[in-house]
């Protein structure tokens, strides 16, 4: 979600407790935070030529994430921002609208099916931390389910004086009677894990309890866990997420897997597998199918995109013959399912192209793999959009960035072929998997479009049927609004598609306030979504919203990502600028009315556009960003993203990183737009130091800027719904002042 979602925890169908993620926030928070993009108050800037003169180095105190001098600097910057934006007469209305939308009881509860019940984490005004609750499947389908609270995070936080943020739950299969609840202090990636009895609905006295660390956990049996974590330090990976222990990789993630038995102290855990400190991370993963086959794997993350998988057997570890760039995503009918991000030329059987889904027999991993699905030239499927049910593989497939739902059936006999069934879902929407598991062929999908309020559909993977279960009421008036898909031509001639949402009667006079956003990295696809805050605070006020499908993402498969990786990344920046220029050429907007917004890896994109094209944008919102690309490898989890960005240790890549690093390319004498920069003190993935150094340097250049650092929230930037609404209101105020006034 920092770059590629740290490989962020997924829905229950494939839970990863702390596998390294990209600089991307969780899907729920990322969607909510897409609410408004940035704008600038300053006039368009001119770009100077030649190498930038040296600037003073940012002071060392900024790197002491929670040091008193650093936090004093942060408070001063926050107050400076609040004194302008919160005192704008429109802020209060924006905040009220954003909070009302965020806390609305009309929101669709995200389902998680366990033990035949539907569970959900719910936050609202009365429960800012959230309650984990359950209801019956029949009640869930009703308009007003009767929910029963299982865990009250607000009560737990108050009792323990900790700002607990829910990070997920992983349960023992197939019984699902014992689970590990993962909690984070204020939203950081590091978690604590506590055993929970789902039948008696209580934390288990003297049960498994793993202290704070970035950690990955899998149940081996009712009394045994496989765990990778910081075994040396009692408090995990250090406050900034950087490696501070011999048990952590240079990226700050664990690489030693041990077997933890019930009643045994962590110090007595026996080693099962060990990677190296040069790995990104190593950890266990567990999969179960509808016939109760189980596969416990040790995944060695050699690099961010390359993994080795070993199957845990009674006789030791068995290396699976998967290509390095692949993700194991499930188990069905005794077959492991993998998403391939490179071509596979197995020792036996036909080659399988990159982007495909493949099946590998669990009892004969050296046998010829089976092709489950091969996407067409304009199709793609993300690993995060694949799941297994009792008897099927289900996937959300994108065709020209428009969603479809598919179910794939295993061959009826040896040597047969997998067959696919497209589910009867609406066209021209985004499709996401919401919940699936090995105990049923029923599963949930989420459907949404820019102007189509989110719907939750329940599908049957065997019957190939699907129907609406819940619909979100419209959160803004979309009357007169339309969605188009246009294309721009990038610098090298590549056609770059983008979505644009605008009023049907929009005049092509160059005077329309426009927000342009993209991500462009780690193979993450940017797809349409329904976000009430964007609609209410921007579209309904006459703004134009644009989502660009630039290279570096996964919209058109692995090749679209590869085209923007490492020293080819300038293509990503050129693609984005080309979309901006295309909007101006079509007289949709102008530099006076054009603002851009991005977060995490998208924050890096904004920083580069800020320095490379300061005269093209009037507004720039730079969220939880990477900005110091000369030093990103030594900051928080930055070393894990060398496979995406390159390394300063390699001369060619170092020269490129210096050339595009936003911090290194700030210079005196340039009229930059006035940016809005936001980050989080508790971000242990990208960290706040990038944003601090960038803002401090702008100070030295006497360039105006807005800076907001939430002291909580982790890489999501915010920890709860009121904090989300606060940030959205700040951005809406900034946006309106700059682009609409």
From TrEMBL:
<keyword id="KW-0645">Protease</keyword>
<dbReference type="InterPro" id="IPR051167">
    <property type="entry name" value="Prolyl_oligopep/macrocyclase"/>
</dbReference>
<keyword id="KW-0720">Serine protease</keyword>
<feature type="domain" description="Peptidase S9A N-terminal">
    <location>
        <begin position="60"/>
        <end position="234"/>
    </location>
</feature>
<dbReference type="InterPro" id="IPR002470">
    <property type="entry name" value="Peptidase_S9A"/>
</dbReference>
<feature type="domain" description="Peptidase S9 prolyl oligopeptidase catalytic">
    <location>
        <begin position="537"/>
        <end position="739"/>
    </location>
</feature>
<dbReference type="Pfam" id="PF00326">
    <property type="entry name" value="Peptidase_S9"/>
</dbReference>
<dbReference type="InterPro" id="IPR001375">
    <property type="entry name" value="Peptidase_S9_cat"/>
</dbReference>
<keyword id="KW-0378">Hydrolase</keyword>
<protein>
    <submittedName>
        <fullName>Prolyl oligopeptidase family serine peptidase</fullName>
    </submittedName>
</protein>
<dbReference type="Pfam" id="PF02897">
    <property type="entry name" value="Peptidase_S9_N"/>
</dbReference>
<dbReference type="InterPro" id="IPR023302">
    <property type="entry name" value="Pept_S9A_N"/>
</dbReference>
<dbReference type="InterPro" id="IPR029058">
    <property type="entry name" value="AB_hydrolase_fold"/>
</dbReference>
